[in-house]
Amino acid sequence: MKNKNNKIWILVLGLVFLVAAFFTKGFGLFKSNLASPETTNPAGFVSIPVSEITNSAKWYEYDSDRNKIKFFVVKVSDGTIKTAFDACDVCYTEKKGYRQEGSYVICNNCGNRYPISGLGTENKIPGGCWPGYLLNVIEGDNVIIKKSDLENNQWRSL
Fewer CB atoms inside 10 Å of the end CB: C or N, the chain? Predict the structure, then answer.
């Protein structure tokens, strides 16, 4: 009888833990490194507070009607803010994106390294591995990105 009661208590405690983990997003155990940009701007823009941006790249995920579009934002030593898709023209099919090491971002698929200071320019020769160009503007205290620019490049997330 005692053994059966112990099993029931263990089962009940396990269920309580699972329910609590579900409702609290895993007590931090299942955290994603992706943030969601502010998308309440009715004018068709996403807005990210400049105060969130540092020299450590921060990855974001924009939820379009069809899929999730990943991009990152980082501040360069001269104070400019760079934005880029977390995919390139070539390696996007692998869905591995980039990582940051010091002042470089590195393709997690092919290993190519790119200086962060060089981001924010269009890939003049399409078909190469280069973090996908994503235009941004600074308005007041926010980095502003057009939703249409994100959605027009969602092929990188497919």
Answer: N
Per the CB < 8 A criterion, the answer to whether 82 and 116 are in contact is yes
Q: Which two tokens stand for residue 107?
A: 């393709």
Mean pLDDT, rounded, for 51-61 = 96
Place of tokens 């955290």: 31
pLDDT digits (tens, 9 = 90+) for 85-131: 998 878 888 989 999 999 999 999 999 999 999 887 776 666 678 88
DSSP state of 111: -
Q: Angle at Cα 61 formed by Cα 60 and Cα 65, nearest 5°?
A: 155
**Mapping DSSP to helix (H, G, I), strand (E, B) and coil, where does residue 120 land?**
coil
**Is this prediction's pTM over 0.85?**
no
